[in-house]
Amino acid sequence: MASVPGTTHLIKEDNVTHSFCGLASVGWLYQKIKDSFFLILGTHTCAHFLQNALGMMIFAKPRFGIALMEESDLSRQDPKLEDVIAEIRRDHHPSVIFLLSSCTPEVMKVDFKGLAHSLSTSEVPVLFVPASGLVYNFTQAEDSVLQAMVPFCPEAPAGEKSVVFVGSVNDSIADDLRSEAEELGIKVGGFLPENRFDQLPAIGPDTVLAPIQPYLSRVVSRLNRERGSKVLRSLFPFGPTGTRVFWEDLAAMFDITVDLHEREQAAWDRISDQVDLLKGKRVFFTADTMMELPLARFLKNVGAEVVECSSAYINKKFHARELEALDGVKVVEQPNFHRQLQDIKQDNPDLIVTSLMTANPFVGNGFVVKWSMEFTLMPIHSWSGVFTLANLFVSPLQRRNKLPEFDESVWLKGVMPSAGH
Fold it and tell me: Where does [4Fe-4S] cluster bind (predicted)?
């Protein structure tokens, strides 16, 4: 057991991650970076996963695809992708192609960096992105994509102080973040990623990096190391309290003093009905998206009891403020899922926030469940996202309240085979 000085205990277990592989990140990144194409080198299993998880329609022309590896390819370490790349350039005209790894070719030790380099041109670079589920949680693949883009961010000259928001959000949230910063007198240098690869923000020693997703520790560390950029160390902008602290801390980095407590109270007032329903509820987070720390902190602010907050990976420096805010909460890194099952059975929480893969078994056993992946896809950031964030937690509780009383014996009778079958 490790501890963060003066705050909370962080328990480290040793289980594998029960979440999607990094290929799932393609679902939001190809929509965000509108002049990109995401090419996965994988197997039929990868194709099946993407086709189902991302809801790809047969008549659509999404800007992602899979170069399928057949059995005959398993003895070779030099996949031939020239024709595939030529077809992508001809049909989609991308400014950049991201080449994503998957489990099988990584086990085969395919030289992805060399492959990407050989396929690149000055007009359309091909960038390698490690996204295998063997190593990365699925949200961390966004971190890998952003790191691949770092060399293409222009160098901002010294003396030009601005903020660059780090993390993929939809256009509505991006507009809100930009306008809020400008209202506070903070110059906005852009977003990483931007909507287009050819419009990446300039980043230099006077750039303040403001991470808005809690799974991007590596890219901000790299930019701090390579460009000398300053990194905002604050709460993530989820919920009224997190949003207030985020903006006050960011303003302070620009020598601007601002008190947003009235704005925070107005946000709490807007979700008072949701707060009343969540207050006192016992919530259990299994590890999935790496968004668990700020989400649990929001629930603690609401007045809910967080029975356990577990996450696949926790960076003590990057997540320090969230860990401080979770003082008194059981926080677990890489939790043992079998131990969690026993604890859930014993503690009987009011709500379990868990992955798509474990949600249905919990529901089948009478628990109220929220799919954790929904938080990665919904606009929940800053002031404009407060209502949506609260509703994501409230909706499964309201849905259960509308259902007839759960009778386990009737349910079992309906699904268990009768004697003699």
Answer: 21, 46, 103
The percentage of the chain sitting over the pLDDT mark of 90, rounded to a whole number, equals 65
Provide the domain limits for residue 378.
268-402
| Peptide bond preceding 125 in cis form (omega within 30 of 0) | no
CATH number where 71 lies: 3.40.50.1980
Question: What pLDDT is attached to residue 421?
Answer: 36
Question: Residues within the annotated binding site for [4Fe-4S] cluster?
Answer: 21, 46, 103
What is the distance between the alpha carbons of residues 244 and 345, in angstroms, rounded to a whole number?
Answer: 37
| Claim: this prediction has a pTM higher than 0.70 | yes
Structure confidence by residue, pLDDT tens digits, 325-345:
999 999 999 999 899 999 999
* Annotated binding residues: 21, 46, 103
Indicate if 44 and 129 belong to the same structural domain.
yes
Query: Do 277 and 249 belong together in one domain?
Result: no
Count of the separate structural domains present in the chain: 3
The candidate with the shortest Cα–Cα distance to 328, out of 349, 352, 343, 308, is 308
Give the separation between CA 376 and CA 302, rounded to whole angstroms. 20
